[in-house]
Amino acid sequence: MIKLTKKQQSDKLLIEKTINMLPLPNQKIQPLVVAEKLGERGIMIFTPREFSRIFKTPSNQTHYFLETYTKRGLLVRLKKDLYTLKTKFPNEEIIANALYKPSYLSLEYALSCYGIIPESVYTITSITTKATVSFDVQGKEFLYRRIKKEAYTGYVPEKKDDKTIFIAEPEKSLADYLYFVSLGRKTLNDRIDCSKLNKEKVIKYCKLFKRKNLNQIIDKVWELNPNIIV
Fold it and tell me: Which residue of 9, 93, 118, 144 sits 20 to 30 Å from the alpha carbon of 31, by its own alpha carbon?
């Protein structure tokens, strides 16, 4: 007999409790099967259409299952038509990439991750080519800011929990941030640490935004780090 970890035991109990709450009439798919199959395929976040394709269920049955088991606590609705298993809840970076596409993590969130700014951030910030928008997921804010398509570059893939997420390179995360400073939508953080950044690379990325005052802002940032040899 395979011995389950405490986490696996807890997940199993939640699923069993959900199954036993109330019978679902004419329900051909069951929560335990759903959880196992999604786990086998490595699927953490899914849409109703993807669910129907995987389990070969008509849209009305899919809708009934998702609505019912969201209310019962087995599933979590991240936003309209986007779900995850509560027992396999993704980390915030995976959620950020999935909530709004195309997007990549950047701005204050990435700057904090890289240690470019000393502050911890509580909003998960991303860049997109679509309209600026924010979502609240389980009490955490996910904010997406729009930039022009020509500047939508400078991000790299990283592995998180066996999933690939996209996050701006250090220099691009700073360039994105300084762009919004140049627009007057952000106040320049005077504690930016650019000691490990390539200034020429920051300048190259900033040129994509075609904002004349960006070079002055870049120089000001480097002036805040007087010991750096450029």
Answer: 93
Long-range contacts of 109-116, Cβ-Cβ distance < 8 Å, separation of 24 or more: 110/167, 110/168, 110/170, 110/173, 111/173, 111/174, 111/177, 111/192, 113/167, 114/170, 114/173, 115/193, 116/170, 116/173, 116/174, 116/192, 116/193, 116/194, 116/197
Check if the beta carbon of residue 125 is closer than 8 Å to that of residue 110: yes
User: To which residue do tokens 């699923």 refer?
Assistant: 15
Residues 13/20, Cβ–Cβ less than 8 Å:
no
Kindly give, in sequence order, each residue whose CB lies less than 8 Å from that of residue 219, ignoring residues fewer than 6 positions away.
none
The two tokens of residue 143 are 């904010």
Q: State the Cα–Cα distance between residues 210 and 214, nearest whole angstrom.
A: 8
DSSP one-letter string for 74-108:
SEEEEETTEEEEGGGPPPHHHHHHHHSSSEEE-HH
CA–CA gap between residue 112 and residue 123 (Å, rounded)? 11
Among 218, 217, 215, residue whose Cα is nearest residue 184 = 217
Tell me the pLDDT tens digit for each residue of 63-106: 999 999 999 999 999 999 999 999 899 999 999 999 999 999 99
Which domains does the chain show, CATH number per domain?
Answer: 6-88 (1.10.10.10), 92-223 (no CATH)
Residue 198 to residues 54, 90, 172, 175, Cα–Cα distance (Å): 46, 33, 10, 11
C-alpha count within 13 angstroms, C-beta hemisphere, residue 24: 16
Identify the three-state secondary structure at position 160: strand
Q: Quote the distance between the C-alpha of residue 92 and its chain's center.
A: 5
Predicted confidence (pLDDT) at residue 5 exceeds the cutoff of 70: no
Written as six digits, the tokens of 73 are 């606590």
